[in-house]
Amino acid sequence: MEINVINKYLKDTLETYCESNEPDLQFKVSAKHIICISEEEFDILNKSKVFFKINVTRLRFAVLEIDSKKYLVIVGTNSLAIDNNDFLKVSINNVIFLSIAEAINLKIRENVSTAYIKDIIYPIEEEKDKTGYELNNIIDLFEPFIVLEVPPQEVQNEFQIKTHIAKILLANSKYTYLEFAPDTIKSYIEYFNSCNYDDNIFNSILAYCWRYCFLDVYRCMEPLFRHIPLSGLKSEINFTGSIDDLYDKIYNHCGWRPQETSSMDTLFTNNYLTEELLQKLHLMNIGESPDENVGKSIYKLRNKIVHHQGVLSDIEKSLTIENWNKLISYLLDSLVEFRKKIPYET
User: Fold this and answer.
1) Amino acid 343: pLDDT
2) What string of DSSP letters covers 140-178?
3) Which of 57, 93, 227, 288 is most buried, judging by how many CB atoms fall within 10 Å of its CB?
């Protein structure tokens, strides 16, 4: 990371903010550096790296490596519940602040007045040195953030990082659009602890309405539709490739696709799910009749949403928030059960 680039960004940010709020104000930051750093800090900053960045709802996340340590940075708040004892909140120093400024493009804190900025900036402008500002004096001008030192093995890839972000969001409900019940959150955590990462599950947590949350979770079941009929065939014909390879060959030559209705009928039976979970789903009465197979009822709900069968707002209201929570929770629990019964080899 280049200190000159970072300083220019911070100066431009301060000047642009003040001039946009007071167009007639000729505001310039003439200090050589925004933050004065030592030679040792300079060397550490030059070696700092950004490994991952993502914007999620009102927060921005990044993973940085600074002085051979890994940090998860969360911009947009300075107060979050973190349910992971291995993630340690650290104090902000010059190198961490400057690294974040470049990695995430820190903005001026909301509702900071230009008068307050001038009170911080101008006194040093009158000094002969003009070398820079103390971090404690300038940090409050910028948006809040949290820095967590994390074990390197916990942030080795995007899937791991997104899983941790998902768990943080679930532990801080003000940053999700939907109001997840404690049992639903518990089911999400169990899914992340038991199953392979899936972007659809991550997206379901970010959904702004229940029907889209439902569709994201439903999409995780779709790959199973080909596994059920093809796993036996793969073994019988001694096919050495993956099930997905076998599916591609059959589809390309025969145009065959698994039938969703029959696949859902098969999945939602006691061959794959516990009687207790089937009973919970059955008691929700989301089908057209009490005797309808649970899998078929779930598939029909999916079709109503995907094919706009009826007014979407009416579909959203067809279940209470309590029942949407139950349905999402039970489907997540179902995915965990499927994982135990169906090999996820592809």
Assistant:
1) 67
2) GGB--EEEEEE-GGGSSSHHHHHHHHHHHHHT-GGGSSS
3) 227
In angstroms, rounded to a whole number, what is the distance separating the alpha carbons of residues 155 and 159?
8
Whose CA is closest to 92, among 47, 150, 139, 143?
A: 139
Instruction: Kindly tell me the burial class for residue 328, based on how many C-beta atoms sit within 10 Å of its own C-beta (0-12, 13-18, 19 or more).
Output: buried
Cα separation values, 322 from 111, 163, 212, 275, 319, Å: 37, 25, 16, 22, 8
* Sheet of 49-56, strands arranged across: 49-56, 59-66, 69-75, 145-150, 88-89
Q: Is the pLDDT of residue 261 over 70?
A: yes
Give the pLDDT score at 346.
42
Return the H-helix or E-strand segment holding 55: strand 49-56
- Secondary structure of residue 344 in the 3-state scheme: coil
Q: Are 187 and 327 in contact (CB under 8 A)?
A: no
Q: CB under 8 Å to 48, separation ≥6 — which residues?
A: 1, 64, 65, 66, 67, 95, 99
Which residue in this structure is represented by tokens 């499927």? 338
Collapsing DSSP to helix, strand or coil, 181 comes out as coil
DSSP state of 206: H
Handedness of CA 37, 118, 108, 168 (dihedral sign): positive
Least confident stretch, 11-15, 39-43, 169-173, 309-313: 309-313
Q: For residues 253 and 288, is the Cβ–Cβ distance under 8 A?
A: no
**Cβ proximity of 14 and 101 under 8 Å:** no
Residue 173: burial class (beta carbons within 10 Å; 0-12, 13-18, 19+): middle
